[in-house]
What does this fold into?
Amino acid sequence: MTPNTTDVLVIGGGPAGTTFGHLAAQRGWQVTLLEKDKHPRFHIGESLLPMNLPIFERLGILDEVKDIGVPKLGADFTIANSNGRHETFYFSKALGESPDHAFEVRRSEFDQLLFEHCKAAGVNASEGTKVTHVERLESGSHRVTAVDTDGEEVIWETRFLVDASGRDTFMSSRNGWKKRNPKHASAAVFAHYRGVKRRAGENQGNISLYWFDHGWIWMIPLRDDIMSIGAVCYPDYIKSRREPLDEFLLNTLHRIISIRGRMRGAEAVTPAQATGNYSYLSDRMFGPGFLMIGDAFAFIDPVFSSGVYLAMNGAERGVDVAEAWLTASEGAYRKACRKYERETHKGLATFSWFIYRFTSPVMRYMFRKPRNTFRVVQGVVSMLAGDVYSNRAVRRRLLLFKTLYSVACMFNWRSVRAAWKVRRPKNQAELQEGALSSE
Ligand SMILES: Cc1cc2nc3c(=O)[nH]c(=O)nc-3n(C[C@H](O)[C@H](O)[C@H](O)COP(=O)(O)OP(=O)(O)OC[C@H]3O[C@@H](n4cnc5c(N)ncnc54)[C@H](O)[C@@H]3O)c2cc1C
It folds into this structure.
């Protein structure tokens, strides 16, 4: 079969792939994007960050995201069964220039919007086309084999390859580069409900986060009176499940008095779904003529709603890497890759530091009773807004917050140690998908 040829081929039409494709096509490259599903399709990851908004502007989609989204002014945090009171962190309090709001979206609508704009930008994008095989050629190009919905094989030869296959981790799984994160073994169970009580007034679009004994819970308000609710739980708790998944989720939610109150009279509109073993990192991020972006490279716990932003930000920066391969010397390409790697790790590390400590008693206390000493709380709000890359004032405040946290831990070492014992991953097998099936 004579292969089709292209400058850039992208595997996957989620936020990372479509952003990359859109911007690479805008720079004049011939781009092909292959997506195995058909939009609109369900996807989890519905709460966006303020720092997404400048990217939407650059893609020319901000008004359309506004039309499908619920405005989100901040995030509120509650310790389950304490006194039910919550603390709200408003994005308007952030340091620097980050926008004062974000949006909550149904990913089926959001991803379809991104995909359509990507096509309109000139990308040759196909749905229902699953990439099955990738081979590196001596010329430095890649040969990509895909199968469409009729079972027909299509072959492409591409000068640059981008893996944006999300949690399918096409390249890192096939090449044995994918490493589970031993520091963060947990699992999520989630569903959509109708009729859940929202926060009052202008706060009605805010995401709510609850700490409870077995992990944490999110509530994300979507349009048409739908609330996305999920519980991210420790292995021991998930392992204790005896009932079907829907019941397990509801029983978990009903453990928390203030959630029970908000859910009175609510009904589930989707079956509960689960995902396990879900923090990982790939040993490699790039190589000769290829780059991995978004969840295809790494996935971190979604407590700070960072996934879509990290994916789109990485895609934007990744276009420079592709351009270096297509136009510049090998040395310039290597330099572009190293810069990309540094920035990517910076974003992941900033969120990860907070994620690993999120359920510790000291962190709970600091989030529930924030004191804005030296504007550290504003630094934390900037992190919540996604301003994690280049703002020095933010990075200084985060450093200070970490110091205050360490000092507080020294004074409370007994409770810190007890909490660590509960959440440490004793046995990775505890989180195998079997423990999470809907039966
Ligand atoms: C429980 C949970 C809650 C989350 N909550 C949030 C949140 O509130 N906010 C947030 O920002 N993020 C959240 N995330 C993370 C978010 O979902 C991801 O980070 C984000 O979707 C990453 O985008 P992506 O484009 O890299 O991958 P994806 O969105 O997964 O897109 C990858 C695409 O590649 C396609 N694909 C895969 N394999 C192939 C193949 N072989 N051939 C062709 N196509 C292929 C897939 O069909 C998919 O469309 C959450 C994640 C989880 C698990």
